[in-house]
Amino acid sequence: MRILIDETQLAAGVAKLAREIDTRYSDRPITVVAVLTGSVVLFADLIRRLSMPQRVGVIQASSYRGGTQAGELVIDAKMLIDVKDRDVLVVDDIFDTGATIAKLRDELTAMGAASVATAVLLRKVREEQHSVRPDFVAFEIPDEFVVGYGLDYLDMYRNLPYIAVLEPEEIAATSAQVG
Ligand SMILES: O=P(O)(O)OC[C@H]1O[C@H](OP(=O)(O)OP(=O)(O)O)[C@H](O)[C@@H]1O
Ligand SMILES: Nc1nc2[nH]cnc2c(=O)[nH]1
Question: Phosphoribosyltransferase domain: which residues (predicted)?
Answer without folding.
Answer: 8-153
